[in-house]
Amino acid sequence: MFISRQFSKITYSAFFTAKRNHQVAVVGATNEVGQTTALLLRTCPSVSKLVLHDTTDSTPGVVLDLSHIPSKSKAKGYCGRNTLEEALEGSSLVLAVGGLPQKSLTTSQSILSQNADFIKIVASAVTRIAPVPFFGIATEPINTLVPMAVEVMRHQGCYEQNKLFGVTIIDALKAQTLYAKANGFVHNECHVPVICGHSKETMVPLLSQASPKTVLPEEKCQDLTNTLRDFTIYEKASSPLTPALSIAYSVYLFTQRILEAIDGQISQVNALVENNDFGTSYFSGLVEVNKNGIGEMRLYSNLFSYECGILEESIRQLREDVTVGKKILEIV
C-alpha cells in the first residue's frame, strides 16, 4: 500500500476505532514543534493521557491552554529536569521534539552541541522506565542524534533496538506534495519513497519508484530531486521561521502508526533506524512496525542512474554523520 493512501485511510479509520488507552509523552513540549504536536495529539483517539514536559516556565500555561480543548484524554504537565523520569513513567511512546531547530543562521556545531545535551538527558531517562517505551526522536540533526541516543542507552545497559526511531516522515510528505504539484497529480494519490538519511546531503527521494509514474523528462526529474533535498526552502520563503507545522504533523502521523502497531496492527512508518543492510549501520526508509517494534524495511530496484550516484554519495555522508553520533559521548 502506498504511503499516502495508507496515511489517509488509516488516519480516517483510526479516528473512529482506535483504543484510547495509551500515554504519550512529549519532551520539549513548549517550542513550536512541541506545542503543535501536543495540539494534534490532544484530539488523537489513541491517546488516553498526554504528558508534556519541558524545562521552561511556560509549561504550565501550555498545559492549561490545552485543557480548554474538549477531549476525553487527560493532559498533564511537568516542568524541570528533575521531573523528567516521573513524566515518562507509564508511557507507551516518548517523543523528543525539543532543542534548537536546524537553521542556516545557526552553526551546525552549535545546534549539535545543544541538541545532543537534550537527547542525552531524554535517552538516559527512557532507559530508567520499565517497560522501555517506544522512543521517537524528531530533534535535529537526526542522522547524528539517533546513533548517539543508542550509545547512551547501550552504555546504561537498557537499549531495545526495535523501539528507537528517528522520525523522518516529513521527508516523504514533502516529496509527495512537491511531486504532485510538479506533475499535476492529485496529492493524496501520490507516493515518493525517500531513503538513506535526513539531511540535504543524505536524503534520497526515488522518483524512479514514484506513483503515479512521472511524466517529466530525466533532466526535470534531477531538478525536482535537488528541490526535494533542499532543506533551506523554508528559510528562503519565510525567514527565520522553521517548518514547525509540517514537522509536528509528521510526528503526529508517526504517533498514530506506532500506537496502531502497539495495539496489534501491522503498520508502516518512515524512520531512520539501526540497519546494516545498506552499507551503513543506520538507514532511513519505510519500515514495518508491529507490537514488538521495527520489522523489515522496504527495498527498491531499477533506480534511475543519477539516483544510484546520489545514493552512493549519501551513504558515504551518512556514515560520517553516524560516526559523529557514536563518538559524541567522548567529545560533548
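Second entry:
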Amino acid sequence: MSIASRDHAKQLFNESKRRLADRVGVNVNNTASIARQIVRGSKSNDILMQSAKHLAQQETALENTASNLNKIQLIQQQLGYQHAAIREGCHILGNVREAVSIY
C-alpha cells in the first residue's frame, strides 16, 4: 500500500469517525430535548398532588358525615323518649278527664 492510499484511508476513517461523533452528539441533544419536554409537559406530579388533596378533603367530609349521623341518632332516640312521654301523658289526661267528669 502506498503512502497516499494510507493517508486517504486515514482521512476517510477520521471523517467517518467525526461524522459518527456528530451524529451521536445530535442524538444525545435530541434525547435531552425530548426528556426536557416530557418533564415540562408532564402534569402527573401536579395531578397526584391534587388527587391527594381531594382525598384528604373527602376523608374530612366522611368524618363529619359520620359525626352528624351519630348526632341524628341521638336526636332520634331523644324524640322517641319524648314521644313515649307524650303518649303516656295523653293516656293519663284521658284518665284525669274521666275522673273529673265523674265528680
